[in-house]
Each structure stands twice: as structure tokens, then as C-alpha cells.
């Protein structure tokens, strides 16, 4: 394709389109800023008018979180006492193995033996731990520990009916 100079008419049309778009962007931006300011003020006003309900809701969720924590601790204690993993009402204790290691040692080891597990000056823990699954490759400083996790259903409805 042959490259040609823009005609005066083309330059003028380009200038009009650029200026129109620029003005439209400025208008839209100013409207968005204005709307966000109004929205923020309305939210602050609503929050102020409903402070008691908000506080009650926050308090209720704090209670839920505390009860959840107590149930999970109880599940782990029951497992330790009975060896039962499935406890009823959808409560289950899961066992998994996790790798325990010094991250700095892991980085140094990976720099020498598995560079693909190194991000710029940090250890890619997922890749490093995939290597550690193989006992023949796993460095001596990596230990495996059992981890217990107590699970709680999000909805007890079907267990309580």
C-alpha cells in the first residue's frame, strides 16, 4: 500500500473526532466522579441511619465465627479421643500431609538443583513441594507432618431435619 499524506479535509475530520472524543471522555469522567461522590455520601448517610442494625449484624457474625471455632476445636478433640473422622451432622476431620521446611534453605537448594522452582529471588513453593513428593528428590531439610483439619458444613439444615 502506498503511503500518502493526509489531506487538509482528512486532518480536519481527524481533529474534530479527536476533540469530540476528548470532550466526551472528560464529560463521562466528571459524571462518574460526581456520581461516586453522591453514592459515597448516600452510603455514609445510610450507614449512619442504620448504625444499630450494622452493629448487631457485625456482632452476630462475630458470635458465628466464635461458635464455628469452638465446634472445630471440639471436632479435633473428639478425633484425638476416639479416632473417628466422621462425627455426624456433616462434621468431618480430614488428615493431610504438609511439607515443613525453611523457605530460605528451599530457595538456596532450588537455585542449585531445580531452577524452574525459583521465581525472581523467591521460591515457587508449589513447584518446590511438587518435587518434594518424590522421596528420592526431597532434600533432607524437608519434613512431612500430618495436618488435621476440622470441617463444618455451611448449612446444617439437611442434618437437623
What would you say about this model in short?
The chain is α+β, with helices and mostly antiparallel strands and 161 residues long.
Structural description of this entry:
- This protein has 161 residues and is an alpha+beta fold.
- Helices cover 60% and strands 16% of the residues.
- A hairpin with a 2-residue loop joins strand 1 and strand 2.
- The termini are far apart.
- The mean pLDDT is 95.
Topology:
Elements: H1 8-49, H2 51-82, E1 86-88, E2 91-100, H3 103-113, E3 118-119, E4 122-123, H4 125-132, E5 143-151, H5 157-160
Antiparallel strand pairs: 1-2, 2-5, 3-4
- In DSSP terms (H or I, runs of 4 or more residues), the helix count works out at 5
Proportion in helices: 55-70%
Shape: flat
Low-pLDDT residue intervals, each spanning 5 or more residues: none
Distance between the termini: 76 Å
Secondary-structure-based class equals alpha+beta
| Rg | 30 Å
Average per-residue pLDDT, rounded, comes to 95
Strand order of the largest sheet: 1-2-5
Element string (H = helix, E = strand)? HHEEHEEHEH
Number of strands: 5
Strand content: 15-25%
- What can be said about the biggest beta sheet? 3 strands, antiparallel
Amino acid at each position: 500500500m502506498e503511503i500518502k499524506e493526509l489531506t487538509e479535509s482528512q486532518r480536519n475530520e481527524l481533529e474534530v473526532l479527536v476533540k469530540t472524543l476528548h470532550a466526551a471522555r472528560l464529560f463521562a469522567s466528571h459524571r462518574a466522579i460526581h456520581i461516586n461522590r453522591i453514592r459515597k455520601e448516600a452510603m455514609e448517610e445510610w450507614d449512619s441511619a442504620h448504625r444499630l442494625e450494622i452493629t448487631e449484624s457485625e456482632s452476630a457474625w462475630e458470635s458465628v465465627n466464635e461458635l464455628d471455632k469452638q465446634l472445630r476445636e471440639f471436632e479435633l478433640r473428639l478425633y484425638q479421643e476416639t479416632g473417628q473422622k466422621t462425627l455426624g451432622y456433616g462434621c468431618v476431620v480430614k488428615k493431610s500431609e504438609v511439607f515443613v521446611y525453611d523457605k530460605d534453605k528451599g530457595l538456596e537448594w532450588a537455585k542449585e538443583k531445580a531452577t524452574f522452582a525459583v521465581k525472581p529471588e523467591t521460591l515457587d513453593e508449589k513447584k518446590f513441594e511438587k518435587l518434594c513428593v518424590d522421596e528420592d528428590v526431597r532434600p533432607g531439610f524437608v519434613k512431612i507432618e500430618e495436618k488435621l483439619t476440622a470441617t463444618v458444613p455451611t448449612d446444617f439444615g439437611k442434618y437437623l431435619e
